[in-house]
Amino acid sequence: MIAIGCDHGGFALKKEIIQYLNDNHIEFKDFGTDSEASVNYAPIAAAVGHSVANGECEKGILICGTGIGMSMAANKVKGIRAACCSDHFSAKFTRLHNDANILCMGGRVIGPGVAVELVDLFLHTEFEGGRHAVRIAQIADIENGKL
What we know:
Oligomer: single chain
Structural class: alpha/beta
Largest sheet: 5 strands, parallel
Shape: globular
Number of helices: 6
Mean pLDDT: 98
Helix content: 40-55%
Strand order of the largest sheet: 2-1-3-5-4
Radius of gyration: 14 Å
């Protein structure tokens, strides 16, 4: 199950991504928002982050105007590695090397075609492990006050 959420700046793009998820029979849980009316992004990022961190959802997708605010907020949830991506290379390698569990994008930065391609890459690229696992463990150490 994929968690998805957006603020007003990402609402139009979220609709496009939901269409992709539906077309590809990928289950998702929508954490809002449901319109272009102004809304704060932090509570939505927290809800998606907690759903991924507690295992309710396998991965998450967050969209705001730039993707930056959502990534900053989501990364405050312990266990979350949210990456703001706007290109194919970053979306692929944030999974391969960083084991990112939330993809953040900017609805005012990229168009729906690229966004869907990034989501597809993110959802279908596996973590490479190996030397990268040590680095991910060090990120957890920072979260736990050990580094």
